[in-house]
Specification:
The protein is 33% helix and 6% strand. The chain is mostly helical. The chain folds into 2 domains: 2-74, no CATH class; 88-226, 3-Layer(aba) Sandwich (Rossmann fold). A 3-stranded parallel sheet has the order 2-1-3. It is elongated, with a radius of gyration of 25 Å. The two termini are 49 Å apart. This is XYL2 arabinofuranosidase.
């Protein structure tokens, strides 16, 4: 609210937030924590003790329901580790969710979906900065993944047993340095070409807004060259 000039001080922000029903702050440490000014607001009569209790109650109720105050032995989630989270059953469910959430804007000549049985003897080229860069596959506020569980487009397609070649064309989403010759060599001999483009957190994320939706750097040129 300070950045938008709705309030002028942390004290004003704390008062306005509590009165509006806000009870949780995503802060940048204790020094910049707006809600640290609540005791002052309470002492000045800007908020009431009952209002403060009403805001705090659901927070502690939720924490209690999550077992946060229970001994670890009483919390069934304490025994969960990565072997459970990344179990075959959970991974298969994640795969099913991914497959069922695809949106095909245009499927010319029934090209998709690609099936392993249809790729025998065919050559695939996977190109673009997102074709084999695990770091770029996760958005803002994503967890830190285990590398062994990350499947880039190239790595995933290699599992189909097809003849798959790869070139990035440009190594990162900003695509400032683009090798057209490298791209042409890869797609020129391919029967099927998959082009992996986008932005990623290097280009747009919180506090990195853009004024247009165009592809960064030479990515559009890469796409046009691949299609040509």
């Amino acid at each position: 609210m300070l950045g938008h000039h709705y309030t002028h001080t942390f004290l004003e922000t704390a008062v306005a937030s509590v009165n509006a029903g806000c009870n949780l702050e995503l802060s940048y440490g204790m020094r910049n924590n707006v809600f640290m000014h609540i005791p002052q607001a309470l002492a000045m009569g800007n908020i009431t003790l009952q209002m403060l209790r009403d805001r705090v109650r659901p927070l502690f109720y939720t924490r209690m329901r999550l077992g946060e105050f229970d001994p670890p032995a009483m919390n069934p989630y304490s025994s969960l580790d990565l072997s459970v989270v990344q179990s075959p059953e959970h991974r298969n469910l994640s795969l099913e969710a991914a497959v069922k959430s695809f949106v095909l804007l245009k499927n010319v000549r029934g090209t998709l979906p690609l099936r392993a049985r249809d790729l025998s003897g065919r050559r695939l080229a996977v190109v673009g900065p997102f074709a084999d860069n695990p770091r770029l596959l996760f958005g803002d506020y994503a967890p830190v993944p285990e590398p062994q569980y990350i499947y880039t487009p190239w790595r995933g397609l290699e599992m189909l047993g097809a003849n798959v070649s790869f070139t990035a064309g440009c190594s990162e989403p900003r695509c400032q340095r683009y090798s057209r010759a490298e791209l042409v060599r890869a797609v020129g001999v391919a029967d099927v070409v998959l082009i992996c483009l986008g932005t990623g957190v290097d280009v747009e994320t919180e506090a990195k807004d853009r004024s247009d939706l165009s592809l960064p750097g030479h990515q559009l040129e890469l796409l046009q060259d691949a299609v040509q």
